[in-house]
Amino acid sequence: MDELIREADWAGSAIASSSWEGSTMATLFTGLRPWQHQVLHPGHARLSPALITLAEALQAAGYKTSGTWSGPWYDQTFGFNQGFQVFQHYGKGVRVVERLRGLRNERQFVWAHLPAPAAPYLRRDALLPRLGRTPPQLPAKVAPVQIEPWFDPASRLPLSHRRRLWAMYCLNVAWADEQLGRLLNALRDSGQWDRTLLVVTANHGEEFGEKGQILHGGNLGRQLIEVPLIVKLPAGFERQVLVPRRQRVTASRLWATLVEAAGGEVPPAAAPSLFRRVSVPALSELYLTNGTNRFSLVEGNDQLLWESRFAAAEPEYYLARMAFRSRETRARMKEPPRAILTRLRDGFNATPPLRGNGAPRLTLERWGTGGNRGSRPVDDPGKAREMAERLARAWGAFASGELAPAQEARDWIEAAGEKPRKAERTTERMMERKTGQPRRRDQR
Question: Which CATH architecture has domain 2-281?
Answer without folding.
Answer: 3-Layer(aba) Sandwich (3.40)
